[in-house]
Design goal:
The chain is an all-alpha fold. It has a single domain, classed as AhpD-like (Up-down Bundle), CATH 1.20.1290.10. It contains seven helices and no strands. The chain has helices at about 10-25, 30-45, 50-60, 65-70, 80-95, 105-115, 120-140. Helix 5 crosses helix 7. It is globular and about 40 Å long.
């Protein structure tokens, strides 16, 4: 399957994305945590290019194969910290809004807020949102895994 178009063709879009990424990474959240959040949202949305890119980037930040293979089952494995679990729960709740799920409940929010300050929470939320943004663009244009913008 071929991609329908090259999204990089719009330099204003790329500039906007770069500003968002800069804001996310200025939020004081461990880059590996941001990769786990990106990977989990992309798994939920079935976005193969983002899953591929997320795995590659997480590996560059030192993530292990064992943990990468278990992000999808983070609740059932002993491989993730409480802080990571809180971020992954927030990611799932914010991503699954179309599933009829309750969304980000007070319990999920409070668990995340226990581990992250407001600046970090803002960065994580923006990271979830931009991941969902990428996932939707990639589905629409049929972007393929293994290619990068």
């Amino acid at each position: 399957m071929e991609a329908r178009m090259n999204i990089v063709a719009n330099p204003d879009l790329i500039t906007g994305i770069q500003h968002l990424q800069k804001a996310i990474h200025a939020g004081g959240v461990d880059p590996l945590m941001l990769e786990l959040v990106h990977l989990r949202a992309s798994q939920i949305n079935g976005c193969s290019p983002c899953v591929f890119a997320g795995v590659q980037s997480a590996k560059k930040h030192g993530e292990t194969e064992e943990r990468l293979h278990n992000v999808v089952t983070w609740r059932e494995t002993p491989f993730f910290t409480e802080e990571e679990r809180a971020a992954l729960a927030l990611t799932e709740a914010a991503t699954r809004i179309q599933d009829g799920s309750p969304g980000v409940t007070d319990e999920i929010w409070e668990a995340a807020a226990t581990h992250f300050d407001e600046k970090q929470m803002s960065a994580i939320i923006l990271n979830i949102a931009i991941t969902n943004f990428f996932n939707r663009i990639n589905h629409t244009i049929r972007e393929q895994a293994g290619k990068t913008w």
